[in-house]
Amino acid sequence: VDITMFRDDLPEKPAEPTNGGNEIPFDINGKTVILISVDTSALGAAFTRRVHEALQREIGVDPHAVMVSAIHIHTGGPQLLEVFWGQKEDKKVTEFFLRETVAVAVEAYRNRVPVTACFAVGCEDRISFCRNYQMSDGSVRTNPGRKRAAEIVCPASEIDCTLSTMRFDDE
User: Fold this and answer.
1) Contacts of residue 29, Cβ cutoff 8 Å, sequence gap at least 6
2) Nearest residue to 133 (alpha-carbon basis) of 125, 144, 122, 123
3) For the chain, what is the total number of helices (H) and then of strands (E)?
4) What per-residue confidence (pLDDT) applies to 104?
5) Could you give the count of Cα atoms lying within 13 Å of 150 in the half-sphere of its Cβ?
6) Which of 45, 65, 129, 155 is the most exposed place for a label (fewest CB within 10 A)?
7) pTM for the full model?
8) What is the C-alpha separation between 55 and 79, in angstroms, rounded?
9) 40-44, 47-51, 110-114, 117-121: segment of lowest average pLDDT
């Protein structure tokens, strides 16, 4: 089961919306999968690969069975700035995020219990908006930001009101 995906890997296709929570390891037909949601606006492929490598060393989990996502906050704590609008990376913040992300995922893995997983899809059209834009260089960008507003040519997709939800119940 390969559940890894990076926005960098899909330059032509808009990123799919995700709904993250906490670190939740679970077995699917005898396979361990770890879902990690980090409280920051964006994650880069390099950071995610470091998490994969650390979890493989710490608990032996296959990197393809680990999905790391950002919950996309707009206010609040520190950011992983190397991927957030090209700002300079703060190495201390990056190391803090890496250390804490791995520690919590390892703790969750070691304390995992059997669960029943549920998934639902709905539509929330009262607060939805277009996130994907055709840029003047021909590329399609997801949320290009204010600094690139002058480069936006037009929306590149329809408004997506999809709201995916996962729920896990202890057995």
Assistant:
1) none
2) 144
3) 2, 8
4) 92
5) 1
6) 129
7) 0.64
8) 22
9) 40-44
